[in-house]
Design a protein that fits this description.
This protein has 2 domains: 468 residues, no CATH class; 56 residues, no CATH class. The protein is 82% helix and 0% strand. Helix 1 packs antiparallel against helix 9.
């Protein structure tokens, strides 16, 4: 059977992720410009709940099915692969349906008590169907990825992004332009901005449905091959799935606990800061009388800074997905030389993208925000310092995610959970201590996020050799660090001196930094440096 190599599989997933993220930016950036900080607080409450659920399905469930499929594919057990698909689809379709119903029922109490944002209940309600669709899609993707075929995942991601763009922006714009036609169907007191946010969120649920329909129509690769090899019982398969899924799912949920922590703490902590120094916030955050300061700042932070922060890790995470089948097979065959080679390769590939990107975001935070959100001056001012701090956090998060995939492929799926809990504890403490300080306010969330992923990355480097018996070299980080600093420094120096309109200054500065990075990241350059 023909398989895709790690590099080819990763390139396919990264290409689809870049396309999906580009489409996602086209979706979220104009949507943020339409909704503003207050509207984005409602959207972010629903999206903050959606992300961990999506991570559990897209990472946990897909990883579990992919790993079992890859192991059986290595020995030609196609009959078992088909049964893995049927069993996991039955179990997780039921689980997804229950999850969707729970979110729908708990939308109001979650928004009021959990997120401290009562107007977000409609947005939370609109996101609930995505749980069911996400579970079904994850099973199909796992089967395809386990057979080293990344095309279905790549195509489905692009389809989801396109539907999210068209449906989300279209529905949001319709509500804003025709409020009376919509509000008459909603409970009295529902604001136009919260209804528009819910319409945008509905576009997300429709996009997950589109992905499910595509994967269902396409089917799975093993259907093309005759049944052969051993066949386990449904009970054994279910047991093996949950043996992998539970720790990976917990790890994915823990990894995304930062968004849950932000969701549950930022608005409350900001309210404390506002109460301590109301004059400071009145002078530094000019809002209308109808806008809540804490909700506005939270929406600005999540809608602007976090949107940009998540772009790079979501792309580099595809390296981890791409390496999972090959690394799983190497671990199953106890080929430690191959495990070492693949682990170092995925770290090197991730660093090549993550380090210059993170440093660039750090030094160009204000220009990036101004370029992407030109009509939201107040929101940009709120988010600039936070984004600069998050630029460094991008590097540590991006490097941690593929190492987590290596743990999972090596059968150490519980390791990311243990390591991430330490980082999450730092995140929670940082939020509770720093955000209530008026002069720090939302920047405290960025600092605690940086601390969180720094702790996770360092602990991962320490624990991976101990748990797998494979020592890895980090010499591959030297080149992107040196070249990344030169890249960011070039862009930072050039930007203020370009005698052009702002719409051209940033792209030119980024292009100049990119050219310097590519020229200086060659092995010959590093040997001369040393």
């Amino acid at each position: 059977m023909r398989k895709q190599s790690f590099i080819k599989g990763s390139i396919i997933l990264i290409a689809s992720a870049v396309i999906a993220k580009a489409i996602g930016a086209i979706f979220k950036i104009p949507m943020t410009n339409m909704l503003g900080g207050t509207g984005m607080s409602c959207f972010s409450c629903a999206y903050g709940l959606f992300l961990p659920v999506y991570a559990v399905t897209a990472n946990g469930l897909t990883t579990a099915v992919a790993k079992l499929t890859a192991e059986n594919n290595a020995f030609g057990n196609y009959s078992n692969i088909k049964k893995i698909h049927r069993t996991s689809l039955l179990i997780f379709s039921a689980a997804g349906l229950i999850g969707s119903l729970l979110i729908a029922v708990l939308a109001v109490p979650f928004s009021e008590k959990g997120a401290a944002c009562p107007d977000a209940w409609l947005s939370v309600l609109m996101i609930s169907p995505s749980v069911l669709f996400g579970c079904i899609t994850a099973v199909y993707r796992g089967c395809c990825e386990g057979m080293s075929n990344m095309y279905p995942t790549a195509v489905s991601q692009v389809i989801e992004s396109l539907v999210r763009l068209c449906a989300g922006l279209g529905l949001c714009a319709y509500v804003l332009n025709n409020p009376q036609k919509v509000l008459c169907f909603l409970p009295q007191g529902t604001s136009v901005i919260s209804a528009a946010s819910a319409a945008a969120v509905l576009g997300i649920s429709l996009s997950t449905l589109a992905g499910t329909i595509f994967m269902y129509i396409r089917g799975i690769d093993c259907d093309k091959y005759p049944s052969s090899g051993k066949t386990d019982s449904s009970k054994t398969i279910a047991k093996n799935i949950f043996k992998i899924f539970i720790p990976v799912a917990i790890g994915s949920a823990v990894t995304n606990l930062t968004s849950i922590i932000d969701l549950g703490t930022i608005i409350r902590c900001l309210n404390k800061a506002v109460q301590r120094a109301p004059e400071y916030f009145r002078n530094n955050f000019p809002l209308s009388d109808t806008e809540n300061t804490a909700e506005f700042i939270y929406g600005s932070f999540t809608g602007l800074a976090i949107t940009i922060f998540n772009l790079i890790p979501s792309v580099t995470n595809m390296f981890g997905k791409g390496i999972l089948p090959g690394l799983s097979e190497s671990c199953a065959k106890n080929d430690k030389a191959s495990v070492k080679r693949l682990t170092e390769k995925v770290i090197s590939a991730t660093a090549f993208i993550a380090i210059p990107s993170g440093l660039g975001i750090c030094v160009l935070a204000k220009p990036i925000l101004k370029f992407l959100f030109p009509s939201r001056t107040a929101e940009c001012a709120v988010s600039a310092q936070s984004l600069s701090i998050l630029g460094i956090a991008v590097i540590f998060l991006s490097l941690s995610l593929p190492i987590f995939s290596c743990f999972q492929a090596a059968g150490k799926a519980d390791a990311p959970v243990k390591l991430t809990l330490a980082g999450v504890a730092a995140k929670l403490l940082g939020n509770l201590i720093l955000i209530p300080i008026p002069q720090i306010n939302i920047s405290g969330a960025a600092v605690s996020t940086l601390l969180c992923y720094f702790v996770i990355f360092i602990l991962s480097l320490i624990y991976y050799p101990k748990s797998t018996g494979v020592k890895i070299s980090l010499k591959c980080l030297v080149s992107p660090i040196v070249s990344g600093i030169l890249c960011a420094g070039t862009a930072w120096c050039i930007y203020p001196h370009i005698p052009l309109e702002n719409t051209l200054s940033l792209p030119i500065a980024i292009a100049a930094g990119g050219i310097v990075y590519l020229l200086t990241s060659s092995p010959e350059f590093l040997r001369r440096r040393c």
